Amino acid sequence: MKILITGGAGFIGSNFVHYMRKKHPSYDLLNVDALTYAGNLTNLDGIEPSEGGGSYRFVRGDIRDRAAMEPLFQAGVDAVINFAAESHVDRSIAQPDIFVTTNVVGAHTLLDLARTYGVRKFIQISTDEVYGTLGDSGLFAESTPLAPNSPYSASKAAADLLVRAYHETYGMDVNITRCSNNYGPYQFPEKLIPLMISRALQDLPLPLYGDGLNVRDWLYVEDHCSAVDLVLHRGVAGEVYNIGGRNERTNAQVVATILEALGKPASLIAHVPDRLGHDRRYAIDADKIRAELGWKPEFPYERGIQATIEWYVGNAEWMNRITTGVYRSMNDAAAADNKELDES
């Protein structure tokens, strides 16, 4: 199988590349990423052509650019898995136009190319945020109406509807996965867990929105990858699959766990004004993917969060390259090397 993975230099995408290389060493993996601020090619260190025969290739490209994407489809692709997205809610509030073009126009470009060139499977990686917010009880099911509350989640919901339309109109074999909050290695340090770990290690204030009681359902990234792998191979055409860890924690609880693990005082917590339109609670009902595809998470929260903290502590240089901006020049150099290899 030849798989086109978009956004494969980002957090979840790079973890998926690592997962697929280990799980399916005979597969050919084509990784496309625009290398925006959140893309980091060092996330992919160690990914080489497999002993199982599978190739690996990286291409720097923007999914919104049809002319750049089309040659990749012309060369033949069996499946597309679209991880590429702008995903930070705060950035979407400040610059919503970037989210609309990348998350909606980009997804449509990929969909239309997949239809044109007969790609057998298209998977759209979405988010539980398209459902909006929950009260103190209840879970998001696949049948929950879409009610996005931020420009980010609205752009993801729009892409989901396009994916659905391409199935209904053209008969494409598509799936949409909607995951809860991921955490684990290689996450860009604008997100809650790596940000708090980084600042705690430096004894800097930890900015916590509002009262810190917003609830998220935390999912270790490798569990997410295993779910997407199952959807790729066994997902029923046109179906949506929720992926959640059933690990509900308030932001304050997550921060407290990090401080305790690092031996840092709670006095580092600094409450800051709440985010605009901040959803209060997310929680996923993942019974469908468990029952129909046999998926189950392998990492309980206590194990996953400890492994995550240990990874960031042990990879201080990775974090330092991001905070200093050095990773951007490293991306440029590595991407140029890849281009020269392709042309030769």
From TrEMBL:
Molecular functions (GO terms): dTDP-glucose 4,6-dehydratase activity
Catalytically driven reaction(s): dTDP-alpha-D-glucose = dTDP-4-dehydro-6-deoxy-alpha-D-glucose + H2O
Keywords, in A-Z order: Lyase, NAD
Transmembrane segments: none
Gene Ontology biological process terms, A to Z: nucleotide-sugar metabolic process
Cofactor(s) recorded in Swiss-Prot or TrEMBL: NAD(+)
Species this protein is from: Paenibacillus rhizovicinus
Protein name: dTDP-glucose 4,6-dehydratase
EC number(s) on file: 4.2.1.46
Enzyme class: lyase
Family (UniProt): Belongs to the NAD(P)-dependent epimerase/dehydratase family. dTDP-glucose dehydratase subfamily.
Keyword Lyase among record annotations: yes
Listed CDD domains: dTDP_GD_SDR_e (cd05246)
Domain NAD(P)-binding: 4-307
Lineage summary: Bacteria, Bacillati, Bacillota, Bacilli, Bacillales
